[in-house]
């Protein structure tokens, strides 16, 4: 544990959260930014901060002389001087200046990714009106027009609906050269923070879903409520992309999830990223601490989530009225699991990032419920109901089992348990059964309910191929009164258990699944207690009625 | 969300962690402490900090004039001037100066608690040698001798083994008046952080276990691995104790758990406390943020744990060698779930609190495994294996079921699942069964395995009274081949599920329980996957042998 000094170009909220992480490790951060009381400088009392522009070569040199490592909280810095400092070994710059330069120009970034076979939306350079027209012919409309440089938080993007929009677009984006991208009709936007240590070791944070509003990040949902296969694919693409870049640090990889499950990389940030704020409360080591560990070449921390679910919402200035802007924060003081991060910005302006709130919970269902009153203060009347990943899978051997199994499905629905329901036959779709059973836990399922009749092999066969608990529902067939199904399901050999319930009793299968969830998700346990009380009350009412009416008239 | 200014007497690590929490809420903290770069001042860049002694009346007055609320991070402050400031309404002091004064004198504190019927160890004033002798006659030896004032971190305590120790004790504790306490032969030391808002609202953090080394806090285990009944009792005692004190803030309540389950209050701290450091990583809102919320009279945050388990270890100076002292931190960089907190103290001294490490995990089993290599750098050769609270309860109707049920117990042992095993008979100990079933989830159990034979009512009856999943093992009796047991267990009415396994198959009951745990505790899921692979390998070996030996010689 050596004492380190880290210089950071930029003293905004990202720098501030770097300082938070650094202080706990006795790492001193020295900031270069113009405001004397920039967010990051406020919480590091050193007199060594440099007051000036983070593109100013002299100031950067001055900072470089007093630190062990130089990093940035924004990519729009002076890459040339960083290259010189690194080349002349005056200071260690991380990530490498070549990476920063590459990312500064989004068009060059795209070419680089294409060259390394990273999937991106089709694009072409459009330096004038004619080139844009020609791109429109090739890619169709809507067409995404983007500034190559100095673009962030949606600034520098223009969506062309038709050719007629071109003059206005050129006018709006006049400052930098442009390129055009084929419109990506994504189903979700995903993001991953990837951290790489100087020695090449890479770790990924979970895949999250980002929801943008007016091109600015609004919500970050962690983990993303997508299929496990998509999650793995996104992680592989993100890691492959980062492996093509030089230098250490965390990198934010923004991606599109397409209708067919394909992943396209949108863009990369060579620094801590808004989509990784949630890691402070929700992960074992935050993106900020891991950025410091990576650039200082000390062991990386765990990127695993330590809570089941989290949602982050950005607090943007609604006007220059601070009180009005901070209303969601006032609301969140009364919300369990909510943590407020204000950035210490003295002045509020419309659209300015003033802070964020991270809400954590025992499940995504609970987290979503918790954040609703906060979102209501930001977007009154807007509901953002996520399609939650299922926790329970109901499968049955045949659609003839559905009348029995749907009763259990209704119970899960009544308890607000996210579930999926499908037909998987051991004898008629054996390969589908293998795939279902093998992938179930990777897709986020916590328990499987399998119903089958006769020579009822489905529950036991699925149990043989999943580490999850499997609940078997013996469905009564036309002969033997269901005893055939019961014995087929319950009399499993040692080593492969099936939790068997009574014949045709999918109600109890669902209730058993909820009890299993409730052992770890207190909200479901409370609901189960209430359900049991209701059962008791209903029987007691019948007692009363029997007493008052008499057994002969009952 | 108003902008607040809070003055803090003392700028050590507790003040520093208050600043961390304050910055995120745009609350400005102004510190009064002598060192210009005290831990707390380092991370709040305001020029308004006051440099001086936190017992200096003038300095306190100066600080009071520039803040909305005045609080302390240490109780050994100038209570008289605080009383004056509060009485003259110059500043709001929280907690109230009378509480600080009361707590400064541990003897007065004891009298106060006794007066309010809070259980404490017997004590009496011992102002001289004779009084100590007389206390020794009354309470016996060992006898605890304590300084009334200026005592913390074990300083001011002396354990008298015999009368002969009295002169040395008087010599050691010469500076302040003394009192004697009957030695409390506790089984564990427990602690709870209680937070109270000015409006009287009270919330408690979980009960934790503290392990001291040479009278200084060494480990904090959250939640304490004790029975749910003990947890509830400790919480009630702690809250009752805090209700007797005036003012807002967090309070640390240290307690003894006695052999008979009784709780005795040891002492109270009117401020954030070492036993609450873990709340930063492990709880929905930290003790530091809740202290600020309480004294500013804004809504309190949730005190629930957001992770299943955490263990905190203090980093004390081993000498004046910083590198040597920080070895546990260097080790913990490679430990998943470990977060280092260094306090920015420039000089290392033997016994000085330099930082702490909090480790979190998916279960107490995992957390304990994670922290072992860190503890090994502090206490080589010492193993501190906790008796973990059981996650699974195995019960059976009669000891005649034990030969069947112990096979499942062995599986749980092999998988390192903490479990309990007992006899609970539906027909012969019905009340015990009710109590067992009703309390199971409160005691921390996640699943119950119940074995019974014949008219096997135990699993179903237990399931009728617990919201937890119940796994039923039909035990084969002398007649009917176990079918009687199977039907009695599996054919439960709608509403009350029992997860039934094959007749006599407690192996599968245990494996099913582990699968249920594994759905939420990834470590168990991984072990289950490995177990299933081993089963496969073993069968494949038999295939090989059959192939090579031939079926006729097999």
UniProtKB/TrEMBL annotation, chains A, B:
PANTHER family: PHOSPHORIBOSYLAMINOIMIDAZOLE CARBOXYLASE, PURINE BIOSYNTHESIS PROTEIN 6/7, PUR6/7. Pathway: Purine metabolism; IMP biosynthesis via de novo pathway; 5-amino-1-(5-phospho-D-ribosyl)imidazole-4-carboxylate from 5-amino-1-(5-phospho-D-ribosyl)imidazole (carboxylase route): step 1/1. Its EC number is 4.1.1.21. The keyword Nucleotide-binding applies. In the C-terminal section; belongs to the AIR carboxylase family. Class I subfamily. GO terms for biological process: 'de novo' IMP biosynthetic process. Residues 110-296 form the ATP-grasp domain. It catalyses: 5-amino-1-(5-phospho-D-ribosyl)imidazole-4-carboxylate + H(+) = 5-amino-1-(5-phospho-beta-D-ribosyl)imidazole + CO2. This is Phosphoribosylaminoimidazole carboxylase. It is an enzyme of class 4 (lyase). GO terms for molecular function: ATP binding; metal ion binding; phosphoribosylaminoimidazole carboxylase activity. Gene3D superfamilies: 3.40.50.1970, 3.40.50.20, ATP-grasp fold, A domain, ATP-grasp fold, B domain. Keywords: ATP-binding, Decarboxylase, Lyase, Nucleotide-binding, Purine biosynthesis.
């Amino acid at each position: 544990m050596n004492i380190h000094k880290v210089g950071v170009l930029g003293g905004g909220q990202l720098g501030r959260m770097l300082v938070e992480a650094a202080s706990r490790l006795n790492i001193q951060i020295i900031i270069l930014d113009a405001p004397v009381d920039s967010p990051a400088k406020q919480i590091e009392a050193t007199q060594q901060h440099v007051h000036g522009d983070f593109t100013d070569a002299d100031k950067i040199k001055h900072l470089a002389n007093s630190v062990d490592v130089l990093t940035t909280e924004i990519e729009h810095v002076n890459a040339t001087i960083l290259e010189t400092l690194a080349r002349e070994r005056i200071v260690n710059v991380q990530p490498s200046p070549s990476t920063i330069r590459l990312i500064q120009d989004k068009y060059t970034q795209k070419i680089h990714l294409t060259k390394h076979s990273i999937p991106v939306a089709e694009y072409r350079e459009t330096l004038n009106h004619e080139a844009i027209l020609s791109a429109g012919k090739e890619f169709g409309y809507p067409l995404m027009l983007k500034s190559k440089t100095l673009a962030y938080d949606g600034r520098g993007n223009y969506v062309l609906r038709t050719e007629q929009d071109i003059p206005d677009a050129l006018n709006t984006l006049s400052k930098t050269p442009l390129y055009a991208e084929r419109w990506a009709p994504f189903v979700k936007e995903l993001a991953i923070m990837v951290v790489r240590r100087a020695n090449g070791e890479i770790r990924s944070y979970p895949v999250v879903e980002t929801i943008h509003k007016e091109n600015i990040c609004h919500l970050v949902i962690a983990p993303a409520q997508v299929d496990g296969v998509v999650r793995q694919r996104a992680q592989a693409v993100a890691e492959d992309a980062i492996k093509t870049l030089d230098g250490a640090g965390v990198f934010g990889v923004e991606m599109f999830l397409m209708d067919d499950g394909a992943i396209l990389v949108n863009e990369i940030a060579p620094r801590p990223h808004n989509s990784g704020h949630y890691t402070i409360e929700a992960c074992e080591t935050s993106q900020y601490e891991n950025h410091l560990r990576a650039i200082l070449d000390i062991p990386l921390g765990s990127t695993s989530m330590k809570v089941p679910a989290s949602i982050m919402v950005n607090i943007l200035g609604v006007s220059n009225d601070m009180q009005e802007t901070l209303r969601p924060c006032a609301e969140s003081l009364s919300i369990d699991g909510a943590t407020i991060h204000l950035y210490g910005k003295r002045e509020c302006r419309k659209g300015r990032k003033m802070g964020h709130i991270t809400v954590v919970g025992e499940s995504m269902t609970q987290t979503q419920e918790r954040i609703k009153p906060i979102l209501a203060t930001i977007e009154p009347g807007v509901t953002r109901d996520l399609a939650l990943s299922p926790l329970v899978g109901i499968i049955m051997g045949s659609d003839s089992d559905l009348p029995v199994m749907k009763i259990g499905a209704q119970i899960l629905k009544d308890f607000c348990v996210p579930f999926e329901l499908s037909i998987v036959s051991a004898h008629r779709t054996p390969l589908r059964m293998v795939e279902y059973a093998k992938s179930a836990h990777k897709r986020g399922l916590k328990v499987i309910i399998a119903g089958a009749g006769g020579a009822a092999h489905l529950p036991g066969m699925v149990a043989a191929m999943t580490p999850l608990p499997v609940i078997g529902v013996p469905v009564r067939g036309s002969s033997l009164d269901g005893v055939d199904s019961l014995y087929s399901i319950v009399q499993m050999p040692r080593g492969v258990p099936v939790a068997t319930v009574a014949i045709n009793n999918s109600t109890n299968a669902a209730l058993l699944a909820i009890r299993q969830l409730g052992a770890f998700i207190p909200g479901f346990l409370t609901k189960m207690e209430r359900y049991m009380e209701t059962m008791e009350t209903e029987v007691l009412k019948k007692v009363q009625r029997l007493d008052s009416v008499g057994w002969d008239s009952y």
